[in-house]
Write a structure and sequence with these properties.
- The chain is α/β, with parallel strands linked by helices.
- It has two domains: about 5-175 and about 305-415, Zn peptidases (Aminopeptidase); about 180-305, Alpha-Beta Plaits.
- It contains ten helices and 18 strands.
- The strands form five sheets. The chain has a seven-stranded mixed sheet, sandwiched between helices. A four-stranded antiparallel sheet has the order 11-13-9-14, covered by helices on one side. Strands 4-5-17 form a three-stranded antiparallel sheet.
């Protein structure tokens, strides 16, 4: 069987797991754990506090610091209300392209890692090769934060990392942060004919949004000199506002969703400081004048750290050697790479770089998302339909035997909490 056929079969297996962020990823983690254990990898599985999500960390080679970590996330964005021409969870090949949810972001990269696992095991004789596959990247990099929190105190640390996000095979050495928040406004209901008798949560949410838009203009004015990003400044977006009951009822509750993508750490500090001050000095005193129980509560959905370009970057140089590229770029979206560097978990002598998959990030969340059929040199055997059924099951959730919590060759860590905080 050809190298591409092996990788295609594994990709078909991975796409068949409907790992939308709202669903469990345990079956796909069990599938990955089985393949890595086949070549002697030391596999660890870390479940979250719900027991329905898990991260996987596996290692080949000696138990020493240094070496390479290959990183990716197992979750995908939803397919609801999208016009697909085929089943998004069944891999379809047309015109030299593979169609299916997650083919480019980022199960294609995981498929390459698994297809090359035997070669990687042979290459890891003197320096280790690690695999980090996470949950819930699409909703705030929750899995990566939890994984780093657990591993950061270990003496054995990877030297550098490559994160296989879709970049059209361009080497990426930097990206903006991605910080997401949900803000809940609690007021007091009443009849619209007596507005002073209530506190309209939607109105205060609207004023909060107006202040965010002012801060967005401020971010443009703060554009760092020489910024390579497009756009060169930090962005801010209001993603949703829900609240109210009826035309003639004062809205007692409103929920606002917004995010910002800082270029430098000072951008985030500026936005958080200014909006907190506005709430403390303006909104909350007015809301609580007649309603002491009124409030504004902010939930941090995720604060993905930016990846700042460095002059000395071993991971970037490795990516150059592997791809033949000689120029690295930056991108305006966020990845898990920033967490690896920010946590100081990686060795200080090397820096994580972010690369590389032959498709575009803009293709990852649209209907009929695809990955090009690219060569993947491997001597691994194919995984056939019957073997896929073992994990997938008729309902695509996987039988109990596919639960990584019962995997015979993986060390389990249960109850690792996802990061939820407030400011």
């Amino acid at each position: 069987m050809s190298d591409l056929s092996v990788c295609r079969d594994i990709l078909a297996d991975l796409v068949a797991f409907p790992t939308v962020s709202s669903e469990s990823n345990l079956p796909v983690i069990a599938y990955i754990a089985d393949r890595l254990a086949d070549v002697g990898a030391r596999v660890e599985i870390f479940t979250d506090e719900t027991g329905t999500k898990a991260n996987l960390f596996a290692s080949l080679g000696p138990e020493v610091s240094g070496g390479l970590m290959l990183s990716g996330h197992t979750d995908v964005v939803p397919v609801d209300a999208q016009m697909w021409t085929s089943d998004p969870f069944e891999l379809v090949e047309r015109g030299g392209r593979f169609y299916g949810r997650g083919t480019c972001d980022m199960k294609g990269f995981i498929a390459c890692c698994l297809a090359r696992r035997e070669m990687l095991a042979e290459a890891a004789q003197e320096k280790p090769i690690h695999f980090a596959f996470t949950h819930d990247e699409e909703v705030g990099c929750i899995g990566a934060q939890a994984l780093v929190a657990h591993l950061k105190d270990r003496e054995v640390r990877p030297g550098l990392a490559i994160v296989g996000e879709p970049t059209l095979m361009q080497v990426i050495e930097g990206h903006k942060g991605c910080c997401e928040y949900t803000v809940t406004f609690t007021g007091r209901s009443g009849h619209s004919s007596a507005p002073d008798a209530g506190v309209n949560a939607v109105e205060y949410a609207a004023r909060y949004i107006t202040r965010l838009m002012e801060l967005r203009d401020g971010l443009i004015e703060r554009t760092p000199v020489g910024s390579r990003y497009d756009p060169p400044y930090a962005t801010l977006n209001v993603g949703g506002l829900e609240g109210g009951m009826s035309h003639n009822v004062i809205a007692p509750r409103a929920v606002l969703k917004w995010e910002t993508r800082p270029v430098v750490a000072e951008d985030l500090g500026y936005v958080k400081r200014e909006i907190a001050d506005y709430c403390r000095t303006r909104l909350l005193p007015e809301m609580r004048r007649h309603t002491p129980e009124a409030g504004i509560e902010t939930e941090v959905i995720g604060e993905a750290a930016a990846l700042f370009p460095k002059n000395a970057n071993s991971a970037r140089d490795l990516a150059f050697a592997l791809t033949g590229e000689s120029r690295a770029d930056v991108v305006p979206f966020g990845t898990e790479a920033g967490f690896f560097r920010k946590s100081a978990w990686m060795l200080s002598s090397a820096v994580p770089a972010r690369s590389i998959k032959p498709t575009s990030p803009t293709n990852s969340s649209v209907p009929n998302s695809l990955a090009s059929a690219w060569p993947c040199s491997t001597g691994s055997r194919s995984i056939g339909y019957e073997r896929r059924r073992r994990y997938r099951g008729a309902d695509r959730t996987g039988p109990s035997g596919a639960d990584p919590r019962h995997h015979p060759r993986a060390h389990l860590h249960a109850g690792l909490s996802a990061r939820r905080a407030a400011f």
